[in-house]
Amino acid sequence: MCSAVLCESRLVTVPDGPLVRVEGQSVSIRCNVSDYQGPRDQDFEWSLITGDGGQDIQLVSTFDPMYTHTSVLDRVESGDISLKKLGEASVELTIRNVRASDSTTYRCSTPSTDSVISGNYYADVELRVIGDTLKVSPAIPSAAVLEGQSVQLHCNASRAYTAHTFLSITWSVRKGTGSPEDILTFGPDEAVRVGPAFTERYADGGLLLDLRGGGVYRMELKEALALDQGAYMCTAREWTRQPGGGKGWQKILEKSEDMGSVTVTPIGQSLAASLSPVSPRFTGDPTELLCNVTDIRNVPDGRLSVTWTYGERRPEGVVSGPMTVATVDELGVLLPGDSYRQRLETGAVTAGRSGPATFRLFVLRSRDQDMGRYSCKVAAWTRSLRGGWDKSPERQSLPVTVEWTAQTPLLNVVAHRVREAATGGSTFEMSCRVTGQNIQNPGYSVLIRFVERQGSNPRKVVSLSADSVLQLEEGMAASRTDSVALEKTGQLEYRFRLYGAQVSDRGFYYCDVTAWTRDQSEDWSRAVSAESNKIEITFTDAGPVFNVSIRSDRDSVSPGDTAQIECTMAILGATPNTGDVAYDVRWFQTPLLAMDNGGAVPLISMDRWGVVRRGSANESAEFSLERTDRHAFVLRLHRAHDRHMGEYHCTARLWYISASGLWREGRELTSAPVSLAVSLAFWDSVQIPVLCGLAAALAAGLLSVVVGLISAHWCLSRSPMHAPRNKLIDLEMD
User: Fold this and answer.
1) Is the keyword Glycoprotein assigned to this protein (predicted)?
2) Would you say residue 249 has pLDDT above 90?
3) pLDDT in tens, 300-314
4) Cα–Cα distance between 81 and 65 in angstroms, integer?
5) Is there a cis peptide before residue 180, judged by omega within 30 degrees of 0?
6) In this structure, are residues 498 and 486 in contact, taking their beta carbons and an 8 Å threshold?
7) Which of 36, 189, 179 minimizes the C-alpha distance to 120?
8) Which entry of 50, 141, 694, 713 is 20 to 30 Å from 202 by CA?
């Protein structure tokens, strides 16, 4: 313990009053002591201060069991009034069921354990017990509303005024079997608190609070939604400030009353749609479908949307899945379905609102494909809290069948030959005549097709559209644009021409005709197609026609000079494929001495691949052969000699690519002969014999000298040995 000099004064504390409680509720009052001397464990006493000059009434004590006054002894013994030690220096007085007579001042005292009397040894707090005067009377003027309308929720609360008490009002809703969910609370500090699920709606102005005073509290649900349906209740609470002057609140009374159930009827649920058709009598007549909407008086601003759907009726009677024809949205904007987009954009089909409760779908020219089952779906739209539009569930009409007796369009096409292509390079011409029935305002497109043989895949050659636009198709080479023609020669007659027929053109030709109809949108619609009989192009393929010509740059050459002779081929008429030709070329010589017996000698050749081969008479390579262009071959004679005199000619065998794409051998032609002479002068004629004679004489003289020398040497080697003689004598004898 501390000394008397250092210790502070004893301090006994209780909550600040007054403490306000409603009759029948409980109250707990805590008492604490601090800054005391003596033992740690302190004792406490509670008593009532009557305040009218009478004697104080002792309630309870922690150390004296006989402390309680007889007037309250039964309440203490029954536990209605009790004292609980919370710690060595703290106790709590509890009155479990306060009475109006309990309104008085309560004193908490602590017997002194200090060496010096200092500080306070008791503290007082006032308790006010008020009567239960709170009354709640809720009301809902209109419990059944349409979606989009407002709901008024009235909660009237009244009470007898008591100082230091405050009131709060809470609206809540129970949906289904769940727990109530708070919507909005006003008070007790005049603040507004919104439930988590309604915060956004309150911020958007969907919840309004009307404080009219006099205990009248009203909350309004603006533009009720389907999810607002449920059971509503109103709760009023009385509050007092937390003891000790804190900022918190202590609830002293609460009363709740059911307001009743609110029913929100979706707008679309009250709508009904029916479809009335005006079917055409024949194909091409207009079709009208009216979608009538009933009970739209409850739709705000009459804002509706409608969607038309169509299901195709198949021959077996099955209706295909519905497809969207068009939609008119809540803003009146037309939204076409994917399958009807073109017809709606061109005006062949129109859709719109023809009256407050009527929508109209109109088909300008009905097609056979338009027969089927139609229906319309209607939805109402209400303004959302964020300024947009919310769509109600759609209401669909019963489907109606639109059909009529269809007149099947008929088309017949007959082709006949106008001009026969008898040979390659000639012109083929055929005509196609069209006959149509049950086709209104027809236009025709014609496509010429070609098949090489019966059963093979056709190829497109040329076409003429319904607007008379000519187009070369992929089955005809671009290089032959000028080789075909297709024109309209009469009201219902078309003529096809093929110029310069080639082997690859042989086959069967026919007309593929399509009838088209056109409505006010100026777009063609296909009605029916038909093919004509086939006309054949056939002629014997003898190969390309060509000739061979030969010419020499001069008729006579001097010995040792070079001469050249050109062999030229010329193609006549059409070829299977222009340029796809080649030649095997051979050159021959008929020597001057052999001209009487016609013995031609092969000199040199070049095959179609460009390979050159020498003949037996050209081993010394005196002749060479060169291809100067696709159809010209030049023979060159090098170092002319008299043996080269005679006649020369060439032969050419044609090779060409047939229609099957393979090389094919053609005919061989021989050119006319051309003569070549070698001019010889006198000296040129004798110089070789003279030179040969001189060479022979010189060779004979040299041979004689050599033979003499050899003979002399042999003779000397055979004579006997003799004595030496005078050299002069030997020389003389020799």
Assistant:
1) no
2) no
3) 677 889 999 998 876
4) 14
5) no
6) no
7) 36
8) 141
Judge contact between 94 and 121, C-beta under 8 A.
Answer: no
User: 416 Cβ partners below 8 Å, 6+ apart?
Assistant: 430, 431, 433, 535
pLDDT bracket for residue 132 (50, 70, 90): confident
Token readout for 190 is 């005049």
Spatial contact of 520 and 424, defined as CB atoms under 8 Å apart: no
The encoded tokens of residue 408 equal: 């099947």
Backbone φ and ψ for 701, nearest 5 degrees, come out as -60, -45
pLDDT class of 233 with cuts at 50, 70, 90: very high
Contact 356, 366 (CB under 8 A): no
Beta bridge mates, 369: none
Is the Cα torsion angle 524, 530, 535, 536 positive or negative in sign? positive
Report pLDDT for 388: 73
To 10 degrees, the CA torsion angle through 223, 229, 230, 231? 50
What distance in Å separates the CA atoms of residue 284 and residue 363, rounded to the nearest whole number? 9
Spell out where 532-680 has E strands. 535-537, 545-552, 556-557, 563-572, 581-591, 601-606, 612-614, 623-629, 632-637, 646-657, 663-670, 674-678
Choice among 116-120, 214-218, 629-633 with the minimum mean pLDDT: 116-120
Cβ neighbours of residue 419 closer than 8 Å, sequence gap 6 or more = 427, 428, 429, 497
Tallying the residues shown for the chain, one arrives at 734
Tokens of 503: 């082997």
Strand intervals (E) in 313-371: 323-328, 334-336, 349-355, 358-363
DSSP 180-239: -EEEEEE-SSS-EEE-GGGHHHHHTT-EEEEEEETTEEEEEESS--GGG-EEEEEEEEEE
Q: How many CA atoms lie within 13 A of 257 on its CB side?
A: 16
Residue 700 gets which letter from DSSP?
A: H
Q: Please give the Cα distance from 470 to 494 (Å, whole number).
A: 12
Beta bridge partners of 411: 436
How far is the C-alpha of 75 from the C-alpha of 56, rounded, in Å?
17
> Pairing between strand 166-174 and 181-186?
antiparallel
Instruction: List CB contacts of 381: < 8 A, sequence separation 6 or more.
Output: 303, 304, 305, 330, 389, 390, 391, 392
In the numeric block, which tokens belong to residue 67? 């402390």
How does pLDDT run across 189-227, given as a tens digit for each residue?
888 999 998 888 888 888 888 887 778 889 888 888 878
pLDDT tens, residue by residue, 402-457: 988 877 888 999 999 999 988 777 889 999 999 988 887 789 999 999 998 888 88
Q: From CA 230, how far away is CA 418, in angstroms rounded? A: 89
Given the DSSP bridges, would you call strands 556-557 and 674-678 parallel, antiparallel or unpaired? parallel
CA distance 244 to 401: 83
Copy the structure tokens of residue 558. Answer: 């001097």
Let me know: does 660 contact 668? Beta carbons within 8 Å: no
Give yes or no for a contact between 122 and 91, defined as CB atoms under 8 angstroms apart.
no
3 state SS for 358-416: EEEEEECCCCHHHCEEEEEEEEEEEECCCCCEEECCCEECCCEEECCCCCCCEEEEEEE
Residues 6+ away with beta carbon under 8 Å from 38: 1, 113, 114
Q: How far apart are CA 269 and CA 332, in angstroms?
A: 21
Stretch 4-23: mean pLDDT: 78
d(CA 544, CA 665): 11
What gap in Å lies between CA 178 and CA 132, rounded to an integer?
A: 30
Within 8 A by CB and 6+ apart from 460, the residues are: 447, 448, 449, 450, 473, 474, 475, 476
Answer yes or no: is pLDDT of 659 > 70.
no
**Sequence-separated contacts (24+) of 69-75 with Cβ below 8 Å:** 72/48
